[in-house]
Write a structure and sequence with these properties.
two-stranded antiparallel sheet, elongated, alpha+beta
Length: 80
């Protein structure tokens, strides 16, 4: 089995990020003090029985590229 992973668009609008930070400050202020921001992006996983034929990866990448491009950090700690 082969798993292909494609990075997707932003999963959280600026409004939603602000709302989540506000909720975190209310419910877990000690943790919120250590969190600078919340970001989210979609990840797509495609499971195949065998290696895809030529061009399939590019086709899937094109189909799974939609919405606003992810603009958050790409390094640092991540929670999946």
């Amino acid at each position: 089995m082969q798993i292909l992973v494609f990075e997707g668009a932003n999963a959280l609008s600026a409004f939603r990020q602000d709302a989540l930070m506000a909720r975190l400050r209310q419910t877990l202020p000690q943790l919120a003090a250590r969190v600078r921001n919340i970001h989210g992006r979609y990840l797509h996983a495609v499971a195949l029985d065998q290696a895809p034929p030529a061009g399939v990866r590019d086709t899937l990448d094109g189909l799974l590229r939609y919405g606003d491009a992810y603009t958050g950090p790409v390094d640092g700690q991540a929670l999946l």
